[in-house]
Design a protein that fits this description.
single chain, about 35 residues, 1 helix, about 0% strand, rod-shaped, Unknown protein 5
Length: about 35
């Protein structure tokens, strides 16, 4: 049971990493505008 949960968490992390990169660019743009 734990091994399957770890695989699911790893797949979620990969999707979060792509969204985090996009959010980081958004935050950088907001700070530069300030």
């Amino acid at each position: 049971r734990q091994r399957r949960r770890r695989i699911k968490a790893r797949r979620r992390i990969k999707r979060w990493r792509r969204r985090r990169i996009e959010r980081r660019r958004w935050i950088e743009h907001a700070t530069a505008d300030r």
